[in-house]
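Quick note —
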Amino acid sequence: MRAVLFSVLAGMLAVFTPAAAQAPAWQSYSYGDLGFSVSLPDKPTRADSSVDTPRGTVPSSFISTSEGTLIFGITTSDYTTANGGAPTDAELTAQNAMNGILKERTVLTVSSFNVPGGAGRDSISTASGLMVRTRVYYMVPHIYIVMAAVPASQSQDALTSGDAAVYFSSFKMLPK
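Predicted structure written out below.
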């Protein structure tokens, strides 16, 4: 799954260049069926599929868009139908998810953050010519992987301020 996400992000980065950037009109997009809302600079695309996990195959969705060289993506997975049910240890599940994401990347930063009733992890890493900020949220039975990527030559500030900060701060889990 990591390879697929990096391929998608790298492909989007090749297509969307600063010359193609226009002043975006940020809008809020709500995905009640996936349990979140987020603000984005352009209408996102959505791809539904499934992902293999240690608990079996679970439904997954990927939402993405871009603005200039900044790429935004959210992957959700629903463990409702997982073998043995959804993991109940939120801290361990969030940490295992982040460890899997960072396995083949160069890690620049990693930290935990509070998710009421769940757990969260935040990282900045590099791989395949990209610098990626990844936030993992786990609320039984859903995992949300919220990402933004820029060319690795840019400063980490591109992922922690400006439009990236608007994006990450706008992500909200909805009550189900």
